[in-house]
Amino acid sequence: MFRQYVLTVLWLMLSAGVQINAHASADLPVTDGLVLWLDGADAVHMTLDAQHRVSRWHDKSGQSNDVSLDDPAAASLPLRVENALNGHSVLRFNGASAFTGQAIRTAKGSVTVFVVSRRLPDQAGGKAWQRLFSSRPQLADNDNVAPNFGLSVQQTGAYAPTVAFLETTNVPIGPFAVARNVVGTSEILRGDIAEVLVYDRLLASQAERQQVSDYLSKKWSVTLPQPSTAWTRTGPLGPTPERTNANLPLSDQANAGKWVLDTRLSDEFNGNAIDATRWHVNNATGTDSLGRKPALFLPENAKVANGNLNISFRKQTLPEKYVRLGYKDYSSAMVRTIERGLYGYYETRAKPMNSAGSSAFWLAWTGLPDNATEIDIFEIGGKTLNGKFDVMYNMNAHVWATPQSDEHLSDGSTWIAPWRLANTFHVYGFDWRADTLRWYVDGVLVREAKNTHWFFPMQIVFDSEAMWDWFGVVDDADLPSTFRVDYVKVWTQRP
């Protein structure tokens, strides 16, 4: 395993995995944001002596972040070894010397690091936690204490060609070191490094990650697991797009998607009552859901006023007939569109309620018992007892039944926001396509997943539920609380 202070995502891919077939186009890594590129296969970007010892490893990114030998007088210097891995050369380190570089970025921000390395049996030994890459903007005893970060190899024995991956946020980059700690002379690598890629950002999509992975796999014949079917952002959003056209998705103001507004499913809630031709409000009749116990869905908790759809969660004495069913002391509401939508872009501007009553924006298909699906664009606990849910943007996609099985399938994850979600309005978007599901916050992609089951038209749902087992029991002092929706807009793509 690799050790670092906040390793939000880490791949350690050994020979037990499955070889990925690289795409023909994966001849280069992603170059946007690339600030350090050290390539063992490229002798042109090395300063070598007659014995193939390397004193300087030159940066191919164009940013001039070269690394220099830490100790030219060391007994053993890094060597360029030709035809060592998949027909390419690598740099070989023997635990005595390595490379250091100057700071790449002094301001805190995001960073993504890939390192291809291995250790042969005759290179085994040395101290544990040998470094592959280390960044230490401050002198401290532990380079895994923020804002320091690093990638290390725990084992001292041989290991197969491996891609180590680190993604983290809120850190500077440097001064840094390759194959050693930034300070001190311990924990210098015994092994080979083939390539180092450092980005001063998070990779923006699963496609970008796949491009880098395919490039490294093809070049170095590195054994990788099957690619992940989903990606979730870690850290802040970064720059957010400016709204210049209210009639287009915030994430696509240039209209590259050729979007057309679907007026059937869109509503700006500018009247003084819910539009009954557009929305159904659950009223405990027919096949309506009664709510999540103990909170009962009541239509009076859903109102349009001040340009918003307002869904309230409140303390309330309920009729005895519902108490007998397990509903007691609390009420909330659910509204859902009468029409159904399929592929398109779904966007709302909303402010979650400031209590542990949930605020949810989701899509539901309940028309066929053997094809029951659901997509949760968000489920938010705005104010919870321990506070950890207050910043959690929860996304999911469910399959409750298929013609082949009634097994519940769930594919979800959480983006951690740098703010309390209930503090103010934000724009939340969802791009639903036949092959891909994408979630957006303020026009920035926060999750992407492969569409494997969600191929049926669904209703749009806004509701609040008592999710005691998840967000905890609501504090009565926070009630009544209101989930406010400024608008919902849906766009489809022109052929």
Describe the structure.
- It contains three helices and 31 strands.
- It is mostly beta strands and 495 residues long.
- It folds into two domains: 34-228, Jelly Rolls, CATH 2.60.120; 250-493, Jelly Rolls (Sandwich), CATH 2.60.120.
- The strands form four sheets. Strands 14, 15, 17, 18, 19, 20, 22, 27, 28, 29 and 31 form an eleven-stranded mixed beta sheet that branches.
- A hairpin with a 3-residue loop joins strand 27 (426-432) and strand 28.
- Mean pLDDT is 86; it is low at 1-25.
Key features?
495 residues, mainly beta, Jelly Rolls, 11-stranded mixed sheet, 3 helices, disordered N terminus, hydrolase, hydrolase activity, acting on glycosyl bonds, GH16 domain-containing protein, Beta-glucanase-like
- Provide the residue-averaged pLDDT: 86
Number of helices: 3
Radius of gyration computed on alpha carbons: 27 Å
Shape: elongated
Alpha-beta classification: mainly beta
CATH class value of the largest domain: Mainly Beta
Overall tally of structural domains: 2
Share of helical residues:
under 10%
- Count all strands and give the number: 31
Say what the CATH topology of the largest domain is: Jelly Rolls
Question: Low-confidence parts, pLDDT < 50 over ≥5 residues?
Answer: 1-25
Major β-sheet, in short?
11 strands, mixed
Q: What's the architecture of the largest domain in CATH terms? A: Sandwich
Beta-strand residue percentage: 35-45%
Task: Report, as a whole number of angstroms, the end-to-end distance.
Answer: 48 Å
Signal peptide: 1-24
GO molecular function: hydrolase activity, acting on glycosyl bonds
Family: Belongs to the glycosyl hydrolase 16 family.
Keywords: Glycosidase, Hydrolase, Signal
